[in-house]
Amino acid sequence: MRKVLVILIILLASIGYCLSQSAARADELFASQQYKESLAIYESLHRSYPQNQLYTYRMARCLQETGKTEASIAMFEEAGERYALRNFYLAQLYAKTYRFEAAAACAEKFMASVSESNDRYADAVKLSVYAHKCARYMRRVEDICIVDSVTVPKGDLLGAYKLSHEGGSLQAESRGIAYISARGDRKIIGSEGKILSCQRLLDEWSECDTLPSPVNGEYNAMSPFMLSDGVTMYFASDSEEGLGGYDIYETRYNSTTDSWLKPENAGFPFNSSANDYMYAVDEQQGLAWFATDRFTSPDSVAVYTLRLNEEKRVLRDTTEDYIRLAAQLVCFRYESDRPLQTAVTDIADESTSSDADSLFTIVINDSTIYTSVKSFRNADARQLAAEYASLSAQLAEEEESLSQMRISYRESESAEQKEKLRGVILTQEKTVRTLRKEQKTLLKQIKGAERD
């Protein structure tokens, strides 16, 4: 017995020694910014010591530096509040994945935990301001319908714009891209960071006038396009009020005051932290186009063709995940009214999915988004996903029922009837809240099961 005990002590000491050597090696690699190499060791250490916050934190940093965004977020959330920088990095990751309210909260937690002299304090302030601004835009993400998309060399950009004669024309000039009205009597051009306007005089163009503020100002402006009404103009600007890079703006000319209205940012999904520009509309065809370099190589640009909405449609009655992905232009309606995922991998044939099966969009990691129960590899995750789809269908029905009750309440002229409806509505609201809570719990379980 004593001999067995001695062997056990020696074995445990050996294991402890090996783990300490592994930790030292991981720390060495981490300090030299060899994140990929240190990640494998920290993963092993985390499995052995799941309560060790340092190993969890370092593993999260390695995942972040190697581009594994969703996994990094999960690890930082698990690491807790012990390390102040955790909130700074988590704020960056939340902003990157369009969780802007959470990003702002983490940035402000970090600011509260350090002094203003901290090297990252100023960056955290900027991040907080940016996140709050983006959070406002997230409340009105437009529901767009994509007809087509094509990636082309930047020099071939205009070839993707198929305007009818009534929509006017776009042409590349030595000074920049110019829009010419359908009647050929007006030209608007973006040149050297300014928007210029010219009139047709017989066989030549007049001297170009620089449009006044607020169209032109201290920031660069480019790629103008005028609607056939001669009043509404779209252009791109790198104003600090934007979401990053060039953003698309809309403005209108007020003939009464001979001035332009303050440009309005087009918001999500048209704009992003990348460059978004050259928004053009053909009312005759009911189509619009815009260009973005958010998903492309440095020498190319993606041009999306949209079906014009009769009026702006804002995404509301759907999941937070779907709105977040739609804002990033990862998910959107396609011409056939089926969702199109531009960054989806391993998705089963949706044509074989049931109606309930297509009610969800679940982000597993940075490159995998599921919209079908059949997509899940893990049997437990697949079963949970089926429950999630069924629950989502039930929730949609209950929310629709609640909406109809509220309409009846508003339209009822009887105080007695309103009092009855009030009790029913309160009960229904409780049901909806419960289902939403169950939905969130299921979603967490699904992601955990599929990642295991």
The ordered string of helix (H) and strand (E) elements is HHHHHHHEEEEEEEEEEEEEEEHEEEEHH
Oligomer: single chain
Distance between the termini: 39 Å
Please identify the structural class as seen in this structure.
Answer: alpha+beta
How confident is the prediction overall: mean pLDDT? 84
Q: What strand line-up does the widest sheet have?
A: 13-14-15-1-16-17
- For the secondary structure, the number of strands is 19
Protein architecture, described:
The protein has 452 residues and is of the alpha+beta class. It has 3 domains: 22-138, Serine Threonine Protein Phosphatase 5, Tetratricopeptide repeat, CATH 1.25.40.10; 145-341, no CATH class; 350-451. Helix content is 42%, strand content 21%. The protein has 10 helices and 19 strands. The protein has helices spanning 2-31, 35-48, 53-65, 69-79, 84-96, 100-113, 121-138, 320-327, 379-411, 415-451; strands at residues 145-153, 169-173, 176-180, 186-191, 194-201, 204-205, 209-210, 221-226, 232-237, 247-254, 259-260, 264-265, 276-282, 287-292, 300-307, 331-334, 339-341, 362-365, 368-370. It has a 6-stranded mixed sheet. α5 runs antiparallel to α6 (100-113), α5 packs parallel to α7 and α9 runs antiparallel to α10. The longest helix is centred in the C-terminal third of the chain and has 37 residues, at 415-451. Residues 10-18 and 336-359 have low confidence and may be disordered.
